[in-house]
Each structure stands twice: as C-alpha cells, then as structure tokens.
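Moderator note: this is an archived Q&A kept for reference. The question asked for a predicted structure of one protein chain; the sequence and the answer are reproduced below.
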Amino acid sequence: MGISFTVLSSGSTGNATVVRNGETTLMIDAGLSAKRIEELMAMREMTGQELDGILVTHEHSDHVKGLGALARKYNLPIYANANTWAAIEKAVGNIEEHNRIILETGEHRDFGSMRVESFAISHDAAEPVGYNFYDGREKLSVATDLGYVSDKVKLAISDADVLVLEANHDIEMLRMGRYPWNTKRRILGDMGHLSNDAAGAALSEILTGRTKRTYLAHLSRDHNMIELARMSVRGAMEDRGCFYKDHEFRLCDTYYDRPTPWDKVSGS
C-alpha cells in the first residue's frame, strides 16, 4: 500500500499531520483541541480510533494542545525524547505509563513495515526533532519549526520522495509587521522559524530527481501568504540555479483551517 499522509493543520494556531500505510496510522503532533482534530480527521474520512500513536516534535502549545486529551480518549501511546517528555508533563496531564514511550533523537522505531526515524532540528525548545518515514523504498520527511537547515538536517531529509518543510515568513513582511522587536529577532534567529528564502535555499541544495513534491508548512498568518510563499521559494531556488518543470517537481500548499488531500508518497 505504501505511505500516504495528510497535513490536517499547519501554522502558529495549531499543527497536526497523519501518516499511514496499510498497517499503521500515526499522528505527528496534536496542537489543536482534541475536538478540532477530530473534526479535521472527519474531513479526511477517518477517526481517532484508527490512530496507533502520536509522535511529538517539541513542547510548544501549537504542537501539544490536544495531545493529552486525544491520547487519553483513544488510549494512544505518545512518542517523544526524554527532554521533550519532561517539557510536556504539565501540558499533557495524566498518561498511562505504558503509553509514555521514549524515542530518543536519532533513534528509529519500526511499526510493521513502516520505520520512523527522528532527527535533531534547531528551535527554541527542549530537544526539537523532525521525522522521517520509510516503507520499502519510499521516504517522507517532515521538518518544521527550525531556525535554519543545518548540514545534518539536509542529510536527514535528502532523497525524500515527498518533503514537508517550513516556509514560515517573508522576511520583509516580518520586519515591517506588528510584532515587538524581541519576537521578530527570535523568529529570524537560528532557533526560530524558517523564512521563504531560507526554505528555497535549502531546497536548491538538497533536491535530487527523487523528490517530487514539497509541502510548504507552518506559514505565518501575519507575515506570509500562500501564493507569496510559493513564489518566493521558487524564486530563491531559481536564483541559485535550481530550475524545474512542474511535472518534475511541485511546491504544494498546507492550511491552518483545513487538511490537505490525502497524498501517496509514491504518487506522481
């Protein structure tokens, strides 16, 4: 069957993604209320009863808001590294011991034929991670909430068939925006969020003929727009000599208020 996925919601108001194959269905983060996550899943004709577990990238509220409630309602295991577990204790609340599972950064875990591997990213959290998903020769990579794309991250996400990558803000929109300077400095820093230009620069370095689609994720509602993100990322790639045709590679959208269509990693 291979890997398929839907980005249920992406942005500063909440994040959740579902990845599945024929045997396993996993959620990455649960950053909206449990009720809202259930509504988003229903839009993609699934329920929480289909989930086999939740993977956590880091402890910020837009990634763990509904985590405890969802895990308790459906008796789901939660996977996170030890430092992230320590950081989410209060927010998550009471979780059965057998559902508190440590997956350290850099380790992998097999869920039937699907292998999940975490990798370190740069963000102002306890120990933030991204995730790779493998099934046979298929590879899906998810990397958001990172201040910059380090060489190790580039190596981790290279040769993904499909990539979900942060394109949080337009730099000039952020600089001219309403946020106080200390918040702007945090977002622009190496422990903040990836700009459109930085996302494009990273893609220009890691793209091979294998990567067919990149979903631009975690867009700021105040300092970015879907069309601008797509145009800026593509422009940054072309500025660095990375040209492509739409039938060879596509930039795809994510949304804060609705899920993306189910997408098969092996699909064209």
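Archived answer notes: The two ends are 15 Å apart (CA to CA).
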